[in-house]
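User: Predict the complex with 1,3-dihydroxyacetonephosphate.
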Amino acid sequence: MNIAQLAETAQALVADGKGILAADESTGTIKKRFDGIRVESTFETRRDYRNMLFTTAGAAEYISGVILFEETLRQEAADGRRLAQIIVDAGMIPGIKVDAGAKPLALHPGETVTEGLDGLRDRLAEYAELGARFAKWRATYGIGPGLPSAACQDANAHALARYAAVCQEAGLVPIVEPEVLMDGDHDIDACEAVTETTLRRVYAALAAQDVVLEGTLLKPSMVISGADCPEQAGVEEVARRTVRTLRRCVAAAVPGIVFLSGGQSDELATQHLNAMNKLPARRPWKLSFSYGRALQAAPLKAWSGKPENLAAAQAAFLERARANGQAALGNWS
Ligand code: 13P
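Assistant: Here is the predicted structure with 1,3-dihydroxyacetonephosphate placed in the model:
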């Protein structure tokens, strides 16, 4: 394993004022997004939409890397260039979602474990050849009475650690993504408690598998009130509690923490990140973004499947990328 090279890639992904574009929606998820703008999801529309994002002039000033779905990693733009090469030529790093999705966890109704370890070593070798330099694996945890169970937390922590180890062996930086879902009416105390136990188990599992933290990134959810909780914690409280929890659980050797947006509005996701980076609390890691919806909601709407909207869609994407790049420095206003 080349630790120096892994660490260099991880650091490049959280370079000052930069974060990651998560454009790795599975075929099912991108269909849902396209349904929202009444565009049919086809091989060509998915290609053209994503090509629009990747060719946005100036995006690389704020976007360090792009997470792709497998189809996109193999796909060519209409001009014959591979989309992954377009990303590299623009000065960004291509990455790849490698999990096979969250599947029902046996004996635990309502809970999931993320699958995809079987055959992963061979797939990673191929992805590396296609140009991927980092990977992503997402585990999800719902909050409810008695949930998440210890079984769910252990199974997902183990899978995340096994994934991270095989990625490092293949020379890809693993982004470790334990997402505590915001669905439900739980308060922010519940989210903080679950986030803390989840992260502790994930880092114990990473240590047990001898994963080298310098060559990883963490992609967590923020500590926030449940979406249906009548009392919504404010921006400062979310920032303070999220950083407090991360300080308790994440070793200083981890170069960066890149948040998911998880269903927050794009503006709120930017405000939260900015507030965290403005806190006086000492932080040993970079705090940045790896947003999907919070970067794409505006350009997706502006695009709406029409080639004549390309410039407007790219302008909308650049605006969100710039706002989050500034928030990664605590400079957004
Ligand atoms: P959201 O920012 O839309 O939550 O997507 C990030 C992601 O990659 C989820 O796995």
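The longest helix spans residues 150-170.
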